[in-house]
Amino acid sequence: MAAHNFLWSLTKNCFTFGLIGLTVSDRYASIVPVRGSSMSPTFNPTTDSFMGSLSDDHVLMEKFCLQKYKFSHGDVIVFCSPSNHKEKHVKRIIGLPGDWIGTPMTNDVVKVPNGHCWVEGDNPSSSLDSRSFGPIPLGLVKGRVTHILWPPQRVRHVERKNHQKRHSPS
């Protein structure tokens, strides 16, 4: 009988902690792996194919910014790919609604529409970002990156960097 009570108590505790963990991950914050070199040197400054995902940076993504879509230029965000909702991308916000963004490849200036943002990777030579697929809807944003949590030697706060790509309309 004691073993039955122990197992029942253990099961209830695991279920309770599982629900609490799921709620925290769903509503407040979660840990996200950053793959590839599109955000280098901010994330994954060295690529080691031998170590694979063990050397990838893992970051803390907070979700409080989603309540009123409070983002700033230079914030690093996680968002769903506009072409494949199962893919998550990590990029830096360059432009917010109403901003004019210069596109160096076509020498055009694009206005970011309401409800959208312009994102780019810190490593433009290997980044699939708004230069490829245009402004992304804010509804695709999953959260803002605040800290690097893994690997241990890289634990730190993620700084907001302001890229000067915005233009005033002429």
From TrEMBL:
<keyword id="KW-0999">Mitochondrion inner membrane</keyword>
<dbReference type="GO" id="GO:0004252">
    <property type="term" value="F:serine-type endopeptidase activity"/>
</dbReference>
<feature type="domain" description="Peptidase S26">
    <location>
        <begin position="107"/>
        <end position="150"/>
    </location>
</feature>
<dbReference type="InterPro" id="IPR019533">
    <property type="entry name" value="Peptidase_S26"/>
</dbReference>
<dbReference type="GO" id="GO:0006627">
    <property type="term" value="P:protein processing involved in protein targeting to mitochondrion"/>
</dbReference>
<keyword id="KW-0496">Mitochondrion</keyword>
<protein>
    <recommendedName>
        <fullName>Mitochondrial inner membrane protease subunit 2</fullName>
    </recommendedName>
</protein>
<keyword id="KW-0378">Hydrolase</keyword>
<feature type="active site">
    <location>
        <position position="91"/>
    </location>
</feature>
<dbReference type="InterPro" id="IPR037730">
    <property type="entry name" value="IMP2"/>
</dbReference>
<dbReference type="InterPro" id="IPR000223">
    <property type="entry name" value="Pept_S26A_signal_pept_1"/>
</dbReference>
<keyword id="KW-0472">Membrane</keyword>
<keyword id="KW-0732">Signal</keyword>
<dbReference type="GO" id="GO:0042720">
    <property type="term" value="C:mitochondrial inner membrane peptidase complex"/>
</dbReference>
<dbReference type="GO" id="GO:0006465">
    <property type="term" value="P:signal peptide processing"/>
</dbReference>
<keyword id="KW-0645">Protease</keyword>
<feature type="domain" description="Peptidase S26">
    <location>
        <begin position="10"/>
        <end position="102"/>
    </location>
</feature>
<dbReference type="InterPro" id="IPR036286">
    <property type="entry name" value="LexA/Signal_pep-like_sf"/>
</dbReference>
<comment type="similarity">
    <text>Belongs to the peptidase S26 family. IMP2 subfamily.</text>
</comment>
<keyword id="KW-1133">Transmembrane helix</keyword>
<keyword id="KW-0812">Transmembrane</keyword>
<feature type="signal peptide">
    <location>
        <begin position="1"/>
        <end position="25"/>
    </location>
</feature>
<dbReference type="Pfam" id="PF10502">
    <property type="entry name" value="Peptidase_S26"/>
</dbReference>
<feature type="active site">
    <location>
        <position position="38"/>
    </location>
</feature>
